[in-house]
Amino acid sequence: MARLPQSFLDDLLDRVDIVEVVDRRVKLKKAGKNYSACCPFHDERTPSFSVNPERQFYYCFGCGAGGNALGFIMDYERLDFREAVEGLAHSVGLEIPQDDPRGGNEPSREQNKPLYDTLERASKFYEHALRQHPERHTVVKYLKGRGLTGEIARDFRVGFAPPGWGNLLQANGADETDQALLMRSGMLVKNDKGRIYDRFRERVVFPIQDQRGRVIAFGGRVLGDDKPKYLNSPETPVFQKSRELYGLWQARKHPRRIERIVVVEGYMDVIALAQHGIPYAVATLGTSTSETHLERLFRIVSEVVFCFDGDEAGRKAAFRGLEATLPAMQDGRQAKFLFLPDGEDPDTVVRAKGAAYLENLFDHADPLETFLFKHLAEGLDLESMDGRARFSKLAAPHLHRLPEGVFKTLMYQALAEQTGIDVDSLKRLQPPPAPRPEPAERAASAPEAPPPMDPDEPPPEAFLPPDDPEISSLSPSSRNPLHRLLGLLLLKPTLVVHVPSGLLGDEGSRDVTLLSEVVAHIRQSPEVTTAALMGFWFGTPEGDFLSALAGRETIEDDAGLEALCLALIDKLSRHPALDAARQQFEALKRKPYGELSQEEKQSLLSLTQEIRTLSGRS
Fold first, then answer.
1. Are residues 162 and 115 both part of a single domain?
2. Domain containing 47 — which CATH number?
């Protein structure tokens, strides 16, 4: 990922005061060493939003939102990264430098600039063709027949790809460099015989713009009966279908503050709704709605409405949208589903009955829970025990994908009321988590089924070792000493002096790797602050993970942080010995207890105690 020079971001975050940044937008109250308020990112009555002036970060104990001043500006004002940086830099008198080409593996913004320029020239070519080309009358007639005005076509930069194989190539592909850029941007096609020609021909052309308004791709609709009816640009270095949404740029820049976003199926639906006073419609780009789409939308608004045809294809598309929505349904967010009658789409409805009528339909669309349960119950007899059982098994895994919170609790309660099955039993219907992989030799020697219980064998719990907290994924755990150590290093980077080299060896899990990277980064920049550390990983899963970990540590004084850090390092330093003891324990446990020698039985007891001692639970 291309990034601005890290030194500039560090300087910017050092110059701003997060208390001042937040207090201008959310009134803060002093609470000990920190400041608190009701969280601006979810509904609550008791303040759980905390701003730490010393560490220069915020964290909400209610919804888990957290980060530095830059992250707060992006979420609160619904800005992209560059816009937020520019706003903060302007407030403290800093000039924006060029992007750092060492920011990641992807091409930097400067390397992609020729692609953006090429796509912009292509868009202007199509716009000019719509106004001046001799054969423009066919497309103009089509657009007028769909009720579009010249003003709305201008606002969405609608264009015309004339008939012929090489119009764009001739206009914008003057030399080999230009042709190479047109190929790389997806505007030209090369067939098996080596012939190069325009991708879009005799189509209405819709430029697709990113969140900064740059043209990154195109969609085209045929004017005749050719196939395919709709054609989109292929994915390129500047265009990924699963991330972009048609019309989102125009919706975000509309003077009227939008409270919800409607997801529709086509470009013309988006434009027609905007023309009739509904400026908050977007469309996916030849792909299903993705989790990335939903996260982007919910960053802007708290309500998303899916509006599809009521036929089977429309309902399947809506359910795919629902599945993508589930992980994003934090408390305070709402998703709705509206199905129009056969033969109708948002374009025809808004032209026939007006914006007020359609917005009323949006207001009364089925909420997510209604659509989910109705869809899953189709064909089932919920009056029968078998029908309720099958319904429960179908619904429970979907509920399991919801983030923890009040909404998830209420969904389980609603399912319990419909099926007569208690909530705890419904939660147990989830597929069990995949077991941790074992070494090949251990798996090969394991019995296919557990051996019968030896009558002389002590109860299993007598030798049950303490649970080993998972250190395998970026999922914060208050019981995991490695996670707690990461949180402390975020709060007080100077604690790194206590961390021995190779604390956990060469384990390959993501959070062990992250600990190594955090330690290395602090040692490379001893003066780094909490805010600058968060800025370095900003916008990545690791950054969200670190913010959550830092927000959970509530010890105020440095002495307390240092004492806890030393205790955690001591516990982690015992990890190799603990792992060795567990392996010996498991090897003995695979044998029936009655077949163990007295020496092996004694070893089993000794290993149990050793594991408890090393785990700190003796």
1. yes
2. 3.90.580.10
Tokens of residue 283, six digits: 């469309």
> b/e per residue, 311-339, with b = 16+ CB within 10 A?
eeebbebbbebbebbbebbbbbbebbbbb
For the chain, percent of residues with pLDDT exceeding 70: 82
Q: How remote is the C-alpha of 494 from its chain's centroid?
A: 32
Same domain, residue pair 284 and 296: yes
Q: Can you tell me the mean pLDDT for 35-45?
A: 88
Place of tokens 């937008």: 25
Order of all β-strands in the sheet with 334-340: 281-283, 260-264, 303-309, 334-340, 366-367
What digits encode the pLDDT tens for the residues 514-545?
888 888 888 887 877 777 777 777 667 777 78
Q: Do residues 121 and 232 both lie within one domain?
A: yes
Total Cβ atoms within 10 A of residue 63: 19
Whether residues 361 and 395 share a domain: the answer is no
The answer to whether 46 and 59 have CB atoms below 8 angstroms apart is no
Domain limits for position 385: 380-427
> In terms of domains, do 544 and 502 share one?
yes
Distance (Å, whole) CA 280 – CA 302? 13
Q: Please tell me whether the peptide bond between 228 and the residue prior to it is cis, using omega within 30 degrees of 0.
A: yes
Domain containing 415 — which CATH number?
1.20.50
**How big is the CA angle at 119 (ends 118 and 121), to the nearest 5 degrees?**
65
Asked if residue 96 belongs to a domain, the reply is no
User: At residue 393, what is the residue type?
Assistant: K
How far, in Å, CA of 328 to CA of 298, rounded? 8
pTM (global) more than 0.70: no
Q: What is the pLDDT of residues 345-383, one digit of tens each?
A: 899 999 999 999 999 999 999 999 999 999 999 999 999
| Domain limit, last residue, from 358, 378, 398 | 378
Whole-number Å distance between alpha carbons of 130 and 161:
8
* Domain's final residue, options 222, 239, 256: 239
* Whether the predicted pLDDT of 208 surpasses 90: yes
Of 54-63, 262-271, 409-418, the least confident: 54-63
How far is 372 from 375, CA to CA, in rounded Å? 5
> In whole angstroms, what is the distance from residue 262 CA to residue 358 CA?
11
CATH of the domain at 324: 3.40.1360.10
Distance between CA 476 and CA 483 in Å, rounded? 7
Strand partners, 198: 188
Domain assignment of residue 584, yes or no: no
